[in-house]
Amino acid sequence: QVQLVESGGGLVQAGDSLRLSCAASGRTFSNRTMGWFRQAPGKEREFVAAITWSGGIRYYADSVKGRFTISRDNTKNTMYLQMNSLKPEDTAVYYCAADKSFYRSGITTRANEYEYWGQGTQVTVSS
Questions:
Q1: How many angstroms separate the CA atoms of 8 and 121, rounded?
Q2: pLDDT per residue as tens digits for the range 21-77
Q3: Under 8 Å between Cβ of 25 and 3
Q4: Where does residue 87 rank: exposed (0-12), middle (13-18), buried (19+ CB within 10 A)?
Q5: Cβ atoms within 10 A of the Cβ of 57, count?
Q6: Is the separation of the CB atoms in 26 and 2 below 8 Å?
Q7: Could you tell me the strand order of the sheet in which 78-83 lies?
């Protein structure tokens, strides 16, 4: 069982930065791929970024590549999403999620491959 709690969201202006955190409880955080997804009003949930259990592979959606950085600290059971050069189109509720598989060798971008989800944190970027 993994419980996830996101934090760090807020209201910022275009061009600003935010760092989201995802704190995990449970003993199986460190052996799962972790991901960030987001959902804007009236839109489907979309993949943002993911990182393998070891941190060795990171993958980003094209829309955030070069602006967002995903990282994790397995000693603290925490994952992060550093978001720079924010745009109004980044406005959404951001969710962290834990892979249903252990020790996956690669990255999955499909939401149905993630078993545990946080409650979400709102990010609003004004123009």
A1: 7
A2: 999 997 778 999 999 999 999 999 999 999 999 999 999 999 999 999 999 999 999
A3: yes
A4: middle
A5: 14
A6: yes
A7: 3-7, 18-25, 78-83, 68-73
* Contact predicate 120/46, CB 8 Å: no
Query: Is the Cβ–Cβ distance between 44 and 33 less than 8 Å?
Result: no
pLDDT > 90 fraction of the chain, expressed in percent and rounded: 93
User: Which token pair is 30?
Assistant: 């460190």
How would you classify the pairing of strands 68-73 and 58-60?
unpaired
Q: What is the DSSP string of 54-120?
A: TS--EEE-TTTTTTEEEEEETTTTEEEEEE-S--GGG-EEEEEEEESSSS-SS----GGGEEEE---
Q: Distance (Å, rounded) from C-alpha 34 to C-alpha 114?
A: 8
CA pair distance 7, 122, nearest whole angstrom: 9
State the DSSP code for 25.
E
Residue-wise burial string across 103-112, b where 16 or more C-beta atoms lie within 10 A, e elsewhere: ebeebbbeee
